Automatic annotation (TrEMBL):
The chain holds residues 639 to 917 of 923 of the full protein. It comes from the Bacteria. The lineage of its organism: Bacteria, Pseudomonadati, Pseudomonadota, Betaproteobacteria, Burkholderiales. Residues 23-277 form the EAL domain. This is EAL domain-containing protein. It is found in: Membrane. It comes from Massilia niabensis.
Length: 279
């Protein structure tokens, strides 16, 4: 499929519509980008509400494009998934996130945990556990400091296969979280079968928490449900003190959002860690 994709990208047929041409050009550019280090990770702190400080960070990919500047993942992730490029791109992201976490741990910032997003395509790859094992060995990161975020819809694609994969990853000692929780469907019945450690409440629920009683009720229910099932729960997209206070009152374990920091480049994130250490 990889070879096919490569050959295809060379044919700019005259009848081909503009959009298809653009897509092929973008795929070509992504291959170049991967080979020439144009991708980078930005980090967003994850705050433990009880401890009142960052105990980890989520790594979010960015493309520093020579012409278009900094590109957010919504511009290229879907295409990377469709073409399979997400597999080497995801491996690169995992490797650099783990290496960065080890660097910060060695600098004395504590047992920081790093969360990395996995796409469906990676999750369906039987070589995934071996790849993750190799990255952990090579970087020296403790497996319990690595959290893998998978979406609810990804797990529902083929529940049986997903459970086998999750069990294999859990056996390695890494943490698993369900990203965008509440946006998929019918997962409640399966939730107890998934060996996950953390639920991440989708930002669409958090956004209206103060004004929409339905969303507030949903969030409160998801927090209780997580705790009843022995999981931790993190709310993303927290932008206001009122949202944070609501979540704290409801015993949410962790929060993440612009209220604390936008995702920032590694050097900037280190400044945040430094400031927290001094404080
Ligand atoms: P996600 O995993 O659900 O990540 C959360 C998104 O919300 C991020 O967008 C983040 O920048 C944004 N965000 C964080 N706090 C706030 C807030 O307080 N308010 C608002 N409005 N937004 C907030 P981003 O970085 O553009 O990433 C978009 C999506 O791209 C991610 O959604 C994830 O699905 C995907 N992605 C990012 N990096 C990777 C990666 O390395 N691999 C894979 N497979 N997917 C990735
Ligand atoms: Ca995520
Ligand atoms: Ca999310
Ligand atoms: Ca999302």
């Amino acid at each position: 499929a990889k070879e096919g994709g490569r050959n295809l990208a060379r044919f700019y047929l005259p009848g081909m519509n503009e959009r298809a041409r653009e897509r092929l050009a973008l795929v070509d550019a992504m291959r170049v980008a991967l080979a020439s280090n144009q991708f980078e990770l930005h980090y967003q702190p994850q705050i433990d509400l009880a401890a009142g400080r960052a105990i980890g960070m989520e790594a979010l990919i960015r493309w520093r494009h020579p012409q278009h500047g900094l590109m957010r993942p919504d511009r290229f992730i879907t295409l990377a998934e469709e073409t399979g490029l997400i597999v080497p791109m995801g491996a690169w992201a995992l490797r650099s996130a783990c290496a960065q976490a080890v660097t910060w741990q060695a600098a004395g910032f504590g047992p920081l945990r790093v969360a990395v997003n996995l796409s469906a395509r990676q999750f369906q790859d039987p070589a995934l556990p071996a790849m993750i094992g190799a990255v952990l060995r090579e970087t020296g990161l403790s497996p319990r400091c690595l959290e893998l975020e998978v979406t609810e819809s990804l797990m529902m694609d083929d529940v049986e296969v997903a459970i086998v994969m999750m069990k294999e990853l859990k056996a390695m000692g890494v943490r698993l979280s369900i990203d965008d929780f509440g946006t998929g469907y019918s997962s409640l019945a399966y939730l107890k079968c998934f060996p996950v450690d953390v639920l991440k409440i989708d930002q669409s629920f958090v956004r209206d928490i103060e004004h929409d009683p339905d969303n507030a009720a949903m969030v409160a229910a998801i927090i209780s449900l997580s705790h009843d099932l022995g999981m931790r729960v993190i709310a993303e997209g927290v932008e206001t003190p009122a949202q944070r206070d609501f979540l704290a009152r409801r015993d949410c374990d962790e929060v993440q959002g612009y209220l604390y920091s936008r995702p920032v480049p590694a050097a900037e994130f280190e400044c945040l860690l430094q400031a927290a250490r001094v404080a």
